[in-house]
Specification:
9-stranded parallel sheet, globular, 11 strands
Length: about 350
């Protein structure tokens, strides 16, 4: 299977239970110890209240937003190990269907049944145009490929993952996938094709799929990203993939984060667009980054802290960290591999 992330970038958890003060033994204090007992009770109440407030604050932050992880192809044990190592509780597993091959290599959904017994809900990236298929967005918009997506949906249901969150045609505003959108005409075809696929997959017995409209952060402003939106009836979440990368100068954590917010199709736009459509946000890929071209921000706890604060203060249904070292494109996004100690410590504090 071709790695779906190989040419990517060229440009829920359980809520902590609040702590409470321990109950006393119910014994009646002797008269001469009454004042001391009352003082201790008052102190216990104050401590208990402080602990409850602290836990409530934690529960209202990033740790309360369901977390997913990509640890490798069909690797539920890797997701579980990531949670153990970081003190977090991933409840979603990110994975990818083959985009580089044929229709049959895509719609077989080979191996995805490995997620069925894991307890993690599958967040599945599904290509709209397999690389060797010769398919086009324009033809897809006419319904020409509906049969393939019917087969895909049937296979996912058979494998026990008919409740997957489908990232259909992910990062479509980039330049690295066969379904990339580059013009307003492409955008209209993308939206129409999306409607065909969603209608087809929802028509399969036993399914309960949800669909995530998932552009990449940033990208071209020569066409209107919103023209590729298929309409609220066909979308359950909107989101953007968000990596700590920056092409400006000087390359400081503060400048990188400001750019993530304000760039074309950045997080500021995402929050506004999601609110206007009444849709929850999902961030299905995010991480720190070391890039071979030098534009990853590296061990950057500022990014982790700011990202955690952002998802805690917006209507975010879930986020999924990409904790994988992708040697195919010379990029390291694995926060646990020893090259990001400060960012990892921030992640454990913010998401643990």
């Amino acid at each position: 299977m071709g790695r779906p992330w190989a040419t990517r970038k060229t440009t829920g958890t359980s809520t902590p239970t609040p702590a409470t003060a321990g109950e006393g033994d119910g014994g009646r204090p002797h008269r001469r110890g009454l004042r001391a007992a009352l003082a201790l009770c008052t102190l216990a109440a104050l401590i208990g209240g402080a602990l409850w407030t602290s836990a409530a604050r934690a529960a209202s932050g990033a740790a309360s937003v369901p977390l997913g992880d990509y640890a490798g192809w069909v690797d539920p044990s890797g997701v579980a190990a990531f949670g153990t190592a970081t003190g977090t509780h991933p409840t979603l597993g990110t994975d990818y269907l083959d985009w580089s091959g044929s229709w049959s290599s895509m719609d077989s959904a080979s191996g995805m049944g490995g997620w069925a017994k894991s307890g993690d809900r599958l967040v599945l990236a599904v290509p709209m145009v397999p690389g060797s298929s010769g398919a086009t967005l324009a033809a897809g918009a006419t319904g020409a490929y509906d049969t393939y997506f019917s087969t895909l949906a049937q296979n996912l249901v058979k494998q026990g993952v008919g409740n997957a969150i489908v990232r259909l045609g992910w990062e479509f505003n980039g330049t690295w996938y066969p379904w990339s959108v580059a013009t307003d005409t492409d955008a209209a075809n993308f939206a129409a094709y999306w409607r065909q696929i969603v209608t087809t997959m929802r028509g399969v017995a036993g399914q309960s799929f949800q669909f995530l409209w998932n552009p990449n952060l940033g990208g071209s402003s020569s066409w209107d990203l919103e023209d590729a939106y298929p309409g609220n009836a066909y979308v359950d979440y909107v989101g953007s993939d968000t990596y700590d990368e920056y092409w400006g100068s000087p390359m400081t954590p503060q400048n990188s984060w400001a750019n993530i917010l304000s760039q074309t199709w950045g997080l500021d736009w995402l929050a506004s667009f999601a609110a206007s459509e009444g849709k929850p946000i999902a961030i299905p890929e995010w991480s720190v980054a070391i890039r071979s071209d030098g534009h990853g921000m590296g061990d950057d706890p500022y990014f982790v802290n700011e990202f955690a604060a952002w998802i805690a203060s917006h209507d975010v249904a879930f986020s999924a960290i990409f904790s994988f070292n992708d040697s195919a494109d010379g990029q390291d996004d694995d926060i646990t591999d020893g090259r990001f100690p400060n960012a990892l410590a921030a992640f454990e504090r913010d998401f643990g």
